[in-house]
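Instructor's aside before we start: the two examples that follow are unrelated to each other. I chose them only because their records fit on one page, so don't look for a connection. First example below.
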Amino acid sequence: MTVGDEEGKVEEAPDSWEILSQQTREFVWNVHKEADSLIHARMQTFVTFEASLIGALFTIVILSKDPTQSWYFKAIVVLAGLLTCAAFLFLNRRIINGVIQLKQEYLLKSTVYRKFYGSAPPGYILPRYLPVLFAGLWVVLGFATLLPLPDAWRH
């Protein structure tokens, strides 16, 4: 992997962080910092939206008077929850892989960063698997709320 700075100079991934120029180190660190902040901001938005959808589903279940009409609303909320999980996975895959590669090829070669980060390889487990857990929750909620079909549909 090569990294360019603002002037367009390109440096190969070093064996040591310390042999990089100060400008390249700052560039690598700023890219990492911004991408990491973006991942966490997206994850906060995702969790907030999913919590809102779960609240909407429980509100529909509790307050529904007409079973046929509420079934449609419940189906829309469950589908929106599943689509949000898929979109989050798709949109974050590239940036998470880029940050992991940046850490492995540059940042973990810095002794200070490596000691701070620990010896475990970067994995970004929560942003990668949280949408999968929510998708599983939506499947369970979908079965629990949508399978009892309204009586009007059973003949």
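Example two begins here.
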Amino acid sequence: MKLQCIAYCYFVLLILSGCISEKELTPHFPHFILHGHGAKPWIVQSILKDGEEKASSITSRKTAFVFYDDFSMFKSPISLLGSNKGQKGNYLGSISLKTNDTLLKIEFNEGLSYLFSVQQINNHQLQLLRISENNESEEIWYLTTLPKPTNNM
């Protein structure tokens, strides 16, 4: 009986000491979804500004962002993927402690930068709300990953 009591107390103590309070948990940006543990291209399918489409509907003219696991990135037309022609920069995702928004900042080497509020993110889709410094109209970006090639021969 005494052995059972000791085992029970040890078990309860083990459970209580292993608990994590919510104050100890901090949200993290899912960078691995952006870079796919290496390099992952995302294609801009749509940019809606004031309800008007701003992105190209021609596939070869669509813009691609490639996010790398070292937090560098590359932006180019999809037709130039694999070349060195485009804009290089860095990106960083974060969680705003003030608003609890998921943020994505893209900074190009030339000095231009974008700040987005991430509205939706999963392995294949990314929806971003661009945050402008001068309260311009709302701009919503929709990006998807490259689709898997089909066997149409």
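The longest helix spans residues 2-17.
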